[in-house]
Amino acid sequence: MRRDNGASRDSWASSRGARAGGGAYREPGPRQRSRTPERNGARPWSQGSPRMGGDRRRSRSPPHRPRDEEQEADAEEEARIAAQLSVAMGAADPSDDEEAVLGSIMKEGDDLVLFRSDEDGDARLDDSKLARPASASGIGEAHDTELERRLSAHEVIRSNETMYKAGQMEKVILRKLAEADPAGKRHCVRLLGSFDYRSHLCLVFESLDMNLRELTKRYGRGIGLSLGAVRLYAHQMLVGLYHLQACGVLHADIKPDNILVNAKRTQVKLCDFGSAMFSGDNEITPYLVSRFYRAPEVILGLPYDHPMDMWGVGCVIFELFTGRILFPGKTNNEMLKLMMDVKGPFPKKMLRKAEFAYKHFESDANMSFTLMEEDPVTKRPTRRLIPNPTVKADVAALLAGQSPDRKKLAQLVDLLDRMLALDPDKRIGPKEALRHPFIKEPLSAPQA
C-alpha cells in the first residue's frame, strides 16, 4: 500500500443498497435508497493526510470559459440568493470568529468500503476495514484523473437502475446547491465530481470529519454540548436550511448522522442528499425521513415542504444540547404520542385534512388518540384511547437547569418551541430563525 509522507490518504465510500427492514432501519419512501441503520450512525468520512487536510488542502481552479447566456442567468440567480441570505443573516454573524465563539465544546460538571488514493489518482480498494466482504458491493478499483490528488470522500452507489437514477438526482441537486454557493459558505457539503465505474455511480465529496451524532457522544458525555457550541452549530444549520429553501430543495433526511463537522469542530455542513427532492415533488408517504426526526405532517399524510426540514433541525438542536433523542418512538403511532406529550394535542383542523389520521385518531367529537401498545403478558397489540392528550413535559421543562445562562436558555426554549410547532404552517422559517435572539445575541454568562 502506498503512503504519502508516512500518512495514509484515506477516503470512505458508502455503498447503499436495498436491505430488509427492522430495527432502526428507515422504511423506504418514494425516490429513496435504503440507508445505513440509525444505530450505526452515518457513513464515516475519513480525514486524510495532515499535509493535504484542513486549510492547507488545494484544489485546481476550473478552466476559464466565456460566459454564455445560460451562465449569465446562473450568475444572476447566485447574486439573488446571496442577497437574500445576507438580509436574512443581518450584520451580526456568529460564525465571523467561529473558534472564538465556539469556546469549550463540552459542558462542565450500508456497507463501508475504504479507498486509498495513490499518487497517480487511482482509488485502490482496501478491504481491511470492510463492514462486509468486498464482493457485497462489487467495487474493486476506480480512477478519476480529473480529481487527481485532492482530499476527498467517495460514495459508491449500488449498481441497479433504481439507485443509479436516484444517484443522478442527488448529483443534480448537489450541483444546483454548489452553483448557487460558489464561495462554499452556505454549509452544504460540496460535490467535487463524479464518475462511473463498472456500472456504479461514484460521487466524490470534500472530506470532512465526524458527524454530529459521533461528536455528541464523544464530547457530550451523556449531557450534551455547551450552549456556545449549540448556538454556533444551530446558526450554521439554519444558514444551510435557508440555502436549501432559496434553491427550492428539500433535504428530507435531517438528523445528526447527516450533518458533518470539520476537524477543528468549528463548522458543520448538511450532507447525504440521497433523499433530497425539489419542492413540489412531494409524494405523500408516512415513512419519509428517519423516524426520530420525522415531522408530524409526514406521519399524518399531509403535504410537506420546507417546514419538514426545520422540524428535523429542531430535534437535532435539542439532542446536541441534552445528549438525548427528543422523540425516540418505535413506531409512527408512538412518535405522535411523544410529540403530544411535549407539544399538546394536534389541531383538529389539521387532523381533518390528514390522509393517515384514521390510523391514529378516532372519528368521535374529541378525535381521541388511539395508542397502540403491546400487552406485557400476551405480547399482543392492544388499543388504548386517549380522549384529551395533555402535555407531560414541555420544552422548557425538558431543558430546565441545563445552563446558568438563564436568558440564553430561555431564548433556546422559545426557538425550539417555534421550530417544533405541530402545525407546519405555524412553524418558524429559516429567515426568521436566523434573526431569533438565540442566534443573534451573544452569550450573557460563563458556561456551566
From TrEMBL:
Residue ranges occupied by any Protein kinase domain in the UniProt entry: 128-439
Coiled-coil segments: none
Top EC group: transferase
Positions of the UniProt region annotated as Disordered: 1-81, 123-143
Pfam families found in the cross-reference section: Pkinase (PF00069)
Start-end of Low complexity biased regions: 8-18
Annotated GO biological process: mRNA cis splicing, via spliceosome
PROSITE patterns tied to this protein: PROTEIN_KINASE_DOM (PS50011), PROTEIN_KINASE_ST (PS00108)
Enzyme Commission numbers on file: 2.7.11.1
GO molecular function per UniProt: ATP binding; protein serine/threonine kinase activity
Gene3D superfamilies in alphabetical order: Phosphorylase Kinase, domain 1, Transferase(Phosphotransferase) domain 1
Keyword set includes Ribosomal protein: no
Signal peptide: none
InterPro entries, sorted: Kinase-like_dom_sf, Prot_kinase_dom, Ser/Thr_kinase_AS, Ser_Thr_dual-spec_kinase, STKc_PRP4
Keywords: ATP-binding, Kinase, Nucleotide-binding, Serine/threonine-protein kinase, Transferase
Family per similarity comment: Belongs to the protein kinase superfamily. CMGC Ser/Thr protein kinase family.
Xref: PANTHER family: DUAL SPECIFICITY PROTEIN KINASE (PTHR24058), SERINE_THREONINE-PROTEIN KINASE PRP4 HOMOLOG (PTHR24058:SF103)
UniProt protein name: non-specific serine/threonine protein kinase
Species of the source: Auxenochlorella protothecoides
